[in-house]
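Page 37, top half.
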Amino acid sequence: MVRVVLPHNLTTLAVTTKEVQLEVAGEVTQRTVLDALEARYPALRGTIRDSRTGVRRPLLRFFACEEDLSDEPPDAQLPEAVAEGREPLLIVGAMAGG
């Protein structure tokens, strides 16, 4: 089981708790985790990544194991600790403004 921590606005939209557990088939990548997340919570489609291009939304960041994974390729494997469920994948809303 892969653990994913969502920001408050997405938990409200998906009507779920802050941390969700997902079954991910095959390699654990950003793409496969987000595919599983959107399949389980259809209200999240298009909120984390563009539904046509699959590109991450600019004001969302991905973190795991104290690393910023936001600019990693979507098909790059996530850290082993995330794949094994020991560490969560954090989806964090970025701050903007000045």
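Page 37, bottom half:
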Amino acid sequence: MGQTTFPLDEKLQLRKDSWSGGAARVMTQCGLREPSFEQAAEGYQEATGGEVSGTSVRRVTQGFGREVRARQRHEADQAAEVGSFEDVPQERWLELQVPLEEAGNLSSDGTMILVREAG
């Protein structure tokens, strides 16, 4: 028995928990930064003007953590998998998730760091 998806939810691209992807992203960012989910809920309200409970922030943030953990386990299993003799190793390489684009000067606590001869 599957969960019913409402047409408006599909049109608005709402997740199964009825939050939009953008709202969930902001909640997760607040949930990861703040020392408590209650404070994260306050941060979400300041950022978006919308109200949310600390419990909802906890659910969304922990759901994100479960997704990350599942992806990491899958990648680790894929990397550790022993292929057949005919497999080409390069075909099993993992894709770079966030490519380094336009690197320039980075600052860490006021210190300039030379990155790729660009600064």
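Margin note: The helical segments are 7-11, 21-33, 37-48, 54-80.
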